[in-house]
């Protein structure tokens, strides 16, 4: 059985929450990855929103999810900064819990590793108090740049409800391989964000590639090898912002559908046996 997919907010590049629920339902993707407010990258100029401030919008989103069977798996946007007290996220976590979020994801831009780990632990504690688990993400542009760095942070936090989020682009761009991931305790892999891209950086800065990715299966990343070593019950979310295509006029639904089709084709191929790619 091919595992279900989630649609994450970056794939939809600014689409408001109720419409994001409808898109996921239309594409038969039962999970969402969300942020609580509009992000700067909004090429289709969708109306700004704030789930944090707009209680009526939260009610509409919850009703839409109840009607469609779609749920929020991942709450994103919990970021550690050197000059921000992690307790400032109490309200954010309240709202994520209200929306039924299962897991929150955190990243760090604080160059002080010890302070980052301290804040990861504090966020995990706050999330757990609201019935949510926590993941940590690594990327060449973050404080935790590699799989090994993220694993070390997980060990230091030392909580059973604190694990890894694997972004396929960041995994490979950080110098890791599918074999490296296969050596990780499977119980630590809690979420996969699936996208494709070139192996080498295309943009002048890493951020340019982060917001302009490729449909799974259309780039150079060894996605089948990665997915083959991920536990079958690990949720897979599509995080595939394709800014250049959106600016060229591709509709959000059309881009998301191509991503879903590409991902499902990759997952179906896993049942056909080993691959060298």
Short characterization:
By secondary structure, this protein is of the alpha/beta class.
Tag the structure with descriptive keywords.
277 residues, TIM Barrel, globular
Radius of gyration: 18 Å
Helical/strand content category: alpha/beta
CATH fold call: TIM Barrel
What is the overall shape? globular
| Uncertain segments | none
CATH class term: Alpha Beta
Largest sheet: 8 strands, parallel, barrel
Topology:
Layout: E1 5-8, H1 9-12, H2 17-26, E2 31-34, H3 55-68, E3 71-80, H4 90-98, E4 103-108, H5 113-128, E5 133-137, H6 147-157, E6 162-167, H7 168-173, H8 178-182, E7 189-194, H9 206-210, H10 223-228, E8 236-238, H11 243-247, H12 252-269
Parallel strand pairs: 1-2, 1-8, 2-3, 3-4, 4-5, 5-6, 6-7, 7-8
Provide an overview of this structure:
The protein has 277 residues and is of the alpha/beta class. It has a single domain, classed as TIM Barrel, CATH 3.20.20. Helix content is 39%, strand content 16%. The chain is built from 12 helices and 8 strands. It has helices spanning 9-12, 17-26, 55-68, 90-98, 113-128, 147-157, 168-173, 178-182, 206-210, 223-228, 243-247, 252-269, and strands at residues 5-8, 31-34, 71-80, 103-108, 133-137, 162-167, 189-194, 236-238. The chain has an 8-stranded parallel β-barrel, surrounded by 5 helices. The longest helix is centred in the last third of the chain and has 18 residues, at 252-269. The chain is globular and about 45 Å long. The two termini are 22 Å apart. The model has no long low-confidence stretch (mean pLDDT 96).
């Amino acid at each position: 059985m091919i595992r279900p997919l989630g649609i994450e907010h970056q794939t939809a590049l600014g689409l408001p929450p109720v419409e994001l629920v409808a898109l996921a339902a239309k594409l038969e993707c039962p999970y969402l990855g969300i942020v609580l407010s509009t992000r700067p990258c909004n090429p289709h100029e969708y109306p700004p929103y704030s789930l944090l401030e707009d209680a009526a919008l939260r009610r509409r989103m919850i009703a839409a999810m109840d009607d469609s069977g779609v749920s929020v798996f991942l709450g994103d946007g919990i970021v550690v900064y050197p000059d921000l007290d992690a307790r400032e996220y109490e309200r954010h976590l309240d709202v994520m819990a209200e929306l039924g979020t299962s897991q929150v994801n955190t990243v760090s831009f604080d160059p002080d590793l010890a302070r980052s780990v301290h804040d990861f632990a504090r966020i995990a504690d706050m999330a757990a108090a609201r019935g949510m688990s926590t993941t940590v993400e690594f990327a060449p542009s973050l404080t935790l740049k590699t799989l090994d760095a993220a694993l070390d942070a997980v060990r230091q936090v030392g909580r059973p409800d604190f694990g890894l989020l694997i972004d396929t682009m960041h995994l490979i761009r950080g110098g890791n391989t599918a074999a490296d991931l296969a050596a990780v305790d499977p119980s630590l892999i809690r979420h996969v964000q699936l996208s494709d891209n070139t192996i080498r950086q295309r943009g002048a800065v890493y951020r340019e590639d982060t917001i302009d990715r490729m449909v799974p299966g259309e780039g150079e990343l060894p996605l089948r090898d990665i997915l083959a070593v991920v536990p079958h019950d690990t949720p897979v979310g599509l995080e595939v912002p394709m800014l250049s295509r959106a600016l060229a006029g591709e509709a959000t639904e059309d881009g998301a559908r191509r991503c879903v089709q590409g991902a499902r084709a990759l997952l179906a191929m896993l049942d056909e046996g080993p691959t060298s790619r």
